[in-house]
Structures are given as structure tokens and as C-alpha cells.
Design brief:
alpha/beta, 296 residues, Rossmann fold, 8 strands, eight-stranded mixed sheet
Length: 296
């Protein structure tokens, strides 16, 4: 597909009946679930999908309101965007295990950006399902002392005219695909990243996620993740951390907090990579993740 270079073709596209959530399903073997962040979609996993699918069943959903997935109505009892994504993820898991032949255990989570807190919160709610964790430039705990978001995120987080501008234009995704990489993406790749955000409803979801970024340690969002540094079933799991060291949001201090909480983690730093480490370090990262999954 010329519009989506490198992305698996439509024969690998699926939808969850209850939510219409779109996902890519490719390969055979133990399941690997890829969870992207904001503002992006499953397109960013294309290189890892090609590397891992010969050995693993790779499931790469578009979070609700991103990529090829429509937003979903807020389910009863939901409190924010995070809860809605967890609700959709539950439906995806039930669809895959009940109707698509996937097992209820031995899952690997590959998480980036918002995929980190979503994936960790979901794993804590479903003990025994997840066997391994792959973390790529993300956070799932209160920000380290002294951490400060870039100014443009603080402006959108506060609402007002900057947030309104982000909803009205494609400025936020355009900035992400340029500032989030060290290696400049090709024109076709940039267009593929931006394609879903041409619609106002997807831009609204992207802004909503920024406005959900927790500001302080007592933010309600962190309550979904409180057991991560206790015995919530994840502390001893095999973990691979692949980190782009030139990330403006998820800094080295965030990486240090991951390693403090999960001292067993196998860590790889990619000094020539930014926030989208899977773009800047594609070949190296792909091999390192594959080797980790084969050996753990």
C-alpha cells in the first residue's frame, strides 16, 4: 500500500465487534500485544511487526479514537480517557481469546508513551495474563522529582486557545513526527502517521489525552497504577527496556525510575534515537526485542 509504506496489508486488518476497534493480526506463536501512545497509531509498529511475526502472534490495535479506530461512547462508570481505553482493551482481549483462538496466558506487552500506563493498568487488572514486558519511552508511575513537561504540552494541558488550535488543526501530530525523531522521516512515512488525524474527532482524542497527563503525585490517574512497585504480579516479570535517550518528554530520569522499580530489566539505550525510538533505532531495536522474547 503506497499510502502506508511498510504497514501490513488489509488481509491482516480486523475489527472488534463490540467497539469497532481496528487491529492488525499477523504471525503465529505466543501473543504479543502492541500498545501505542499519543499522537500515533499502530503504523509505528510496522518494523517490529515484520521482525517478530515469523515467531509470534502480533496484535497491534489502534487505541479508540486513534488510527483506524473510531472513538467509543463512554461506558457506564468510566471516569476518563484512560478508563475508556481499558474498557476497549478488555473487549479486545475477550474477542481474541473467546473467538480467535488466542490463549489466556503467556502474553507479552510492548508499550510506548501512553501505551505504558494503559498496558500496566490492564495487566494489574488481569493478573496472570502477562508474562513479559517491553517498555519503550514511557512512564507508569508519578513523574520523578524535578521532571517538567515541554512547554507546548503544558499549554495544551491547560486548555484555552492552544488546545483549541490543536483540535482545529493537525499541528500536534505534525510536530510529533518531526520533533519525536532524530532521523527525519520520509514524506510518505510522515503522511502515513498524519493520515488518521485529518479527521477532527481523532484530533480531539489526541488533545484529550494530553489534558489527561497527570500533573502531580496525587492525580487520580496514578491510582490505576499504584501496585506497580509492590507485588502486583509484575515486579518479577522479565522486562526489556529500549530507550531513546534524546526524548524531550521521557527523559533519562524517567528511565532511572523504571530501573529502580524493575531492577531485573534488561536495558538498551539508543543514543541516536528520540521519542519514537522504533523509528530512529528500528534495526537494532527489532533485533534486541526479538532476542529478548526468544530468550526470556
Amino acid at each position: 500500500m503506497r499510502a502506508l509504506p511498510g504497514y501490513p496489508g488489509p488481509r491482516h486488518w480486523r475489527q472488534v465487534p463490540v467497539t469497532d476497534q481496528h487491529y492488525v493480526d499477523i504471525g503465529t506463536g505466543d501473543p504479543v500485544l502492541f500498545l501505542h501512545g499519543n499522537p500515533s497509531w499502530s503504523y509505528l509498529w510496522r518494523s517490529l511487526l515484520g521482525t517478530l511475526s515469523p515467531d509470534f502472534r502480533c496484535i497491534a490495535p489502534d487505541l479508540a479514537g486513534f488510527g483506524l479506530s473510531p472513538p467509543v461512547p463512554e461506558p457506564q462508570g468510566s471516569v476518563d480517557a484512560l478508563e475508556r481505553q481499558l474498557w476497549c482493551l478488555d473487549r479486545l482481549f475477550r474477542h481474541l481469546t473467546a473467538g480467535q483462538g488466542l490463549p489466556g496466558r503467556r502474553w507479552t506487552l510492548v508499550m510506548h508513551d501512553w501505551g505504558g500506563p494503559i498496558g500496566i493498568a490492564w495487566a494489574l487488572r488481569n493478573p496472570g495474563v502477562v508474562a513479559r514486558l517491553v517498555v519503550l519511552n514511557s512512564a507508569a508511575f508519578p513523574w520523578p522529582a524535578g521532571h517538567r513537561l515541554p512547554m507546548y504540552l503544558r499549554w495544551i494541558r491547560a486548555g484555552g486557545p492552544v488546545a483549541a488550535l490543536a483540535r482545529a488543526t493537525n499541528a500536534l501530530p505534525r510536530a510529533a513526527v518531526r520533533l519525536g525523531v532524530v532521523r527525519r522521516l520520509g514524506a510518505a512515512e510522515r503522511m502515513a502517521y498524519l493520515l488518521p488525524f485529518a479527521g477532527r474527532q481523532h484530533r480531539r482524542t489526541a488533545v484529550e489525552f494530553i489534558r489527561c497527563i497527570p500533573r502531580s503525585d496525587d492525580d487520580p490517574a496514578w491510582r490505576l497504577l499504584e501496585p506497580t512497585d509492590a507485588d502486583g504480579g509484575l515486579a518479577g516479570l522479565p522486562m526489556f527496556i529500549g530507550w531513546g535517550t534524546r526524548d524531550r518528554v521521557f527523559t533519562q530520569a524517567v528511565l532511572a525510575e523504571w530501573t529502580r522499580r524493575f531492577p531485573q530489566a534488561r536495558v538498551r539505550r539508543y543514543d541516536g534515537a528520540g521519542h519514537f525510538v522504533m523509528e530512529d533505532a528500528a534495526g537494532q531495536l527489532d533485533r534486541h526485542v526479538r532476542d529478548f522474547l526468544r530468550s526470556s
